[in-house]
Model the fold of this input.
Amino acid sequence: MIEAALSPWPDVAAHFAAGDGLAILPFGALEQHGPHLPLSTDTATAAEVARRLAERLDAVLLPPVNYGATWNNAGYPGTVSLSPETVTSIVLDIGRALVASGARGFVIVNGDWGNRVPLYAAARRLAADEVITTIALDYPGMDAAAEAVRESREAAPGLNHAEEIETSLMLAIDPGSVHPQLYTSEYPAFPSDFGTRPMQLHQFSTSGVFGDPASATAAKGETILAATVEASLAVLADFVAALPPR
Done:
């Protein structure tokens, strides 16, 4: 594995030429995560998963994109959201640049729900234009691993935000950024069409927490991270095998 941000260009070029030619990009967000977690939570999680994948695949690790499409949290100060079109454009530009650097495959580790559609659009465009073989990963295996360790109830099906699961992840990744003295629990009442149309979340939770972080532990976070990496590697096995010849 080589970190592009910390390496001279000849080293990056040599790494692309010597192995599978994989580049891995963590794509995060600057988004509220309650009073006890940093705005960079999604970026930190994506970066950790991307780093572990780069180590296992001997890939070039790109520096993370620290902003994403997070309109649903834009009502909380500190959140900085990109448009979906900007997210797609960023990936298209990076993908084209990677080809010029000698990359053969482009793996995006998505850290935020709002990035899913624009990242997939970028991957599809790069494939359709035959620029570079690209895949966007949405944390394979994470949901199952989270349910296996969860003690608290979900605020809504599939909604893990600043509660036990995300707090456990940050306790495993960067415990100094977590402030347990500020833990709070909120279980909002959602309308029946929640999750089926765009809604901003600040109208439901004053703190930005959806659930209860009290039972979070670093051990749970590590379990979730490890399972996510293994599931991601299983998905990437066929992706790597199908890369075009040099």
About this structure: The radius of gyration is 18 Å. The mean pLDDT is 97. The helical segments are 9-18, 41-57, 84-101, 116-128, 142-149, 164-173, 218-241.
